[in-house]
Amino acid sequence: MTIETVDTQPKPNLLNDPKVRAVIAQIVVVVLFVSFVSYIVSNTAVNLEKLGIKAGFEFLGLQAGFMPTSPNFNLTGFDVSKDTHLDVFYLGLVNTILVSVLGIIAATIVGFFFGVLRLSSNPLLRFVAAAYIEGTRNIPLLLQILVWYFAVLLALPGVKQSINIGDMFFLNLRYLVIPAPIFEDGFGYVVTAIIVGIVATVFMVRWARKRQEKTGEQFPVVLAGLGLIIGLPVVTLFAVGVPLSWDIPALKGFNFQGGVQVISQLTALFLALTFYTGAFIAENVRAGILAVSHGQTEASYALGLRPNRTMSLIVIPQALRVIIPPVTSQYLNLAKNSSLAIAIGYPELVNVFMGISLNQTGKAIEIIGMTMGVYLTISLLISMFMNWYNKRVALVER
Amino acid sequence: MSKAFVRTEFHPDLPPPASESGPIAWLRHNLFSTWYNSLATFFVLYLAWLVIPPVLDWALFSAVWEANNYKECKAGGTGACWGMIDKRFDLFMYGFYKAEDHWRPNLAIIVFIIAMLPVLFDKLPGRRMCAMFLILGYPAFTVALIRGPIEMSSFNSTMGIALWVVAFVAAAYWGHHNAKKFNAVQSGIGYAIAYIILFIVFIAWGMGLTPTETDTYGGLMLTVMLAGVGIAVALPLGILLALGRRANSMPIVQMLCIGFIEIVRSVPLISVLFMAQFMLPLFMPEGIKFDNVMRALVGFSLFAAAYMAEVVRGGLQAIPKGQFEAADSLGLNFYLNMRLIVLPQALKIVIPGIVSTFIGLFKDTSLVSIIALADLLLVAKQSYTDSNWLGLEHTAYVFIAIIYFCICFSMSRYSMYLEQKLHTGHKR
Fold it and tell me: Of the candidates A232, A247, A262, which is a domain's last residue?
């Protein structure tokens, strides 16, 4: 009897089934999306035809015919008489990576320094750190780049009146010139020594950890590691008779000869990116250290650990877990923000490729696509690293 | 017989030793507690002595307050040339927007501040009404006020007007009809369409003002407009994207949302703006033309939406699963679940995140100067390259830096205040 009542229940409307609804909704979305894309594609095709532009990547093989960088700052050896748009792309990519790597290293140092300074017990130091952080965080980066370039570096004296720093470094409104190292025969031994030192340190750290787990005895890992990585190459350097000399720049005529010329655009961009990103990293560092509860420190003291070991074994590992993810995304921001160099003419990817090459060839879709692809790849690589790291340091819970 | 000594009255409390109380103790404990701390203190004081007097001298004592060109500035003093700011103040604020129309952006900003006050500080009355006005009425009001009427061909014929009226009545009736049947989704759609029609009609009417050209917009007005429109578009779009990203039952929708968010977030804003500048005109059919400001707005809003989506997703993830399940078991459908249960909680959590995204957005508006929109930064740059005011980059940059700093810093303080107010429950 009860079975009958179940059978006579009205069949539910198919539209009320969440699964059916999800499928229908997705079909609608796909249809809308596809028609939107095809609408855009057909419009673009019509517009391109009207403008007489052919789509395709052949332009990469054409001679660029312009000099994207100053002749004294030409890392890829760009040759204006024969190099193509692909070489422009390559030059821009190298310059983007150069300023990003330099900026990331410097911003990390600045950020950690001011982050710790902001937690100092000295209110004056705290105020200095807070003033720096709030001042740089609340002013647009582009404005800071322009200030460094137009108001600070371009206000320096001219080439002939360069500021002389110890007869080695010369600073003027166009560039900073620094001595260049010249590697002679036998420098290969020193490089080998550095590699050997790093590999030996890795093995030493593993061995020391195992020994400590077995016997409880500690090994002075830091000291021995420094000895291996720095001491060994220095000893080798002197053992093979210092196969290294410096090309000291000197003023000859209207320009400097010798040394490496760091153009002002790079200096300005580097300083602005460093201090801007450094302020954000400082906030992350501060938050990370504050996130380690005071109970951890107290528990560590109760176990009898000394303050410096408490710091290195208890506080810093836990703080790093909080600090690293936001800091990685700051690194990513720095790499992306290096594109603002277009405002001061540093020859990086967006400036030379998306700016000049695009204007010359008119291949908007291809060039913008390639440029975005580069940043997409960088960001994917960084986020892959971040996920790997997060998994490594994530709290293991029950 | 020995006498016992019993103390009957207590000795009055002695003041703490002079070295442990008052300002001297504070100095000893905070500034000179160790030798390196003392060293740091003296170093900072030396730094202050080195920096502050020249800065004050430049900004105040040697500054020139009235001048007609850079020569008078150079002659008047070695400091800042505030005379330039005074002479070019209108350019800094409104760009080339016509002087007789300056009251329009002024009125828009005054109305905004008055309506915003009850929303920001809950001691004032009328919060709900002001919020409703800001969300529904204010955008149309401001667009009409600043832009003036926008020419639309369909309003020229009686046929076109009739179509608009019919569409509005139908949408409103459909919304009202479904609201009576408690069909939230369909009534929502109906009312939304009716609202959009009203919005379009309102900005086409433009409150009967004279129309203005978008390429005259500039200065702080353009900066604020870009940020305002950016956030107004980004917030609803960001919520939709965040919901789409979490829609596990619809993998295709999820994929599209993730793709959009991740691609936009991993490329620099300048490339998005370039794309809007160079590719948007290619995407459009013949005859439809976007002016420069519109193109920048489109690129900027899409960029902001991707960031907003991630902020909102953070809030959605913080809502315990029990809330979703409880709403489901009450029989609420997806729309009501979101509107009544999930979004009010999630958005409340992420208000500080939204504010800080907005600060980032506000700073990022300066990038439009690269694609030649006359925002605050470009106006400053034009000022010191003007033949009348050559070589005054310090004054121009410091002036706009102060403007940016004041706006961003006050917003970040407000966000901290909010964070404290909203997190009372979790405080140790």
Answer: A247
C-alpha to C-alpha distance for A109 and A117, rounded to whole angstroms: 12
Q: What is the model's pLDDT at position B4?
A: 81
What b/e string do you get for A208-247 counting C-beta neighbours within 10 Å, with b at 16 or more?
Answer: beeeeeeeeeeeeeeebbebbbeebbeebbeebeeeeeee
Residue B135 has pLDDT above 90, yes or no: no
- Residue in B41, B250, B279 nearest the CB of A26: B250
Counting the structural domains of chain A, the total is 2
Provide the token pair at A342: 């277009």
**Domain, as residue range, for B250:** 216-373
Q: What is the pLDDT of residues A227-270, one digit of tens each?
A: 888 888 888 888 887 777 787 887 877 778 777 888 889 999 99
What is the domain range of residue A15? 2-51
Q: What is the pLDDT of residues A332-376, one digit of tens each?
A: 999 999 999 999 989 989 999 988 888 888 888 889 899 999 999
Residues B258 and B405 grouped into a single domain: no
Structure tokens, A233: 């190459």
| Nearest alpha-carbon partner for A328 in A375, A385, A388, A271 | A385
Verify that B248 and B345 share a domain, yes or no.
Answer: yes
Asked if the Cβ–Cβ distance from A33 to B256 is below 8 Å, we say yes
Residue B264: closest CA among A153, A375, A135: A375
The alpha-helical segments, DSSP class H, found in A176-220 are 187-215
Q: Is B281 on the interface with A (CB under 8 A)?
A: yes
Residues of B in contact with A343 (CB under 8 A): 369-370
Asked whether residue A46 is domain-assigned, the answer is: yes
SS (H, E, C) B130-179: HHHHHHHHHHHHHHHHHHCCCCCHHHCCHHHHHHHHHHHHHHHHHHHHHH
* Shortest CA distance from B393: residue in chain A: A151
**To 5 degrees, how large is the angle CA A248–CA A250–CA A252?**
150
Using DSSP, state whether A225 is helix, strand or coil.
helix
pLDDT of residue A5: 52
User: Chain A contact for B34, CB < 8 A?
Assistant: no
Do B236 and B351 lie in one domain? The reply is: yes
In this complex, the residue of A138, A151, A375 whose CB is nearest that of residue B404 is: A138
Q: Of A323, A339, A340, nearest to A378 (Cα)?
A: A339
What ipTM was predicted for this assembly?
A: 0.87
Cα pseudo-dihedral B5, B10, B11, B15, rounded to 10: 150
Which of A20, A35, A51 is the endpoint of a domain? Answer: A51
- The string of pLDDT tens digits covering residues A30-59 is 999 999 999 988 888 888 888 877 778 888
Is residue B182 included in any domain, yes or no? no
Domain holding B239: CATH number?
1.10.3720.10
pTM of the model: 0.87
A-chain residues within 8 Å CB-CB of B45?
124
B47, B274, B373, best to mutate vs chain A, most A CBs in 10 Å: B274
Residue (of A105, A102, A104, A115) closest to A320 by Cα position: A115
Domain count, chain B: 2
Q: Which of B270, B298, B385 to mutate to test the interface with A (most CBs of A within 10 A)?
A: B270
Q: Which residue has the higher pLDDT, A247 or A291?
A: A291
